Amino acid sequence: MPVSICIAGATGWAGRPIAKAVLAAHDLTLVSAVSRSAARQALGRVWGGDADGVPVRGTVAAGRKGAGRLLASTRPPH
Question: Cα angle vertex 74, ends 71, 78, to 5°?
Fold first, then answer.
């Protein structure tokens, strides 16, 4: 059974390749992403393509719902 993943920062320069790797993995499922600026959109659309069914949430709490693991690819707050 695949592990369900949420990626915080999936719209950023470091998070995008991580998200693409999760999407390509057979044992992982990307169920959501977190980005305040891109909330309420599909991740594929944010990346400039078609909607891919991966919702982008505005908070980590919302993104984690339904995800077994959270991967954070964000910079720490100043």
Answer: 140
DSSP letter string, 33-78: EE-STTTTSBHHHHTTS---S-BEESSHHHHHTT-SEEEE--PPP-
Name the token pair of 68: 């077994």
Task: For 7-27, write each residue's pLDDT tens digit.
Answer: 999 999 889 999 999 999 999
Tell me how far the alpha carbon of residue 29 is from its chain's centroid: 10
Long-range contacts, 61-67 (Cβ 8 Å, 24+): 62/32, 62/34, 63/6, 63/8, 63/32, 63/33, 63/34, 64/6, 64/32, 65/32, 66/4, 66/31, 66/32, 67/4, 67/5, 67/6, 67/31, 67/32
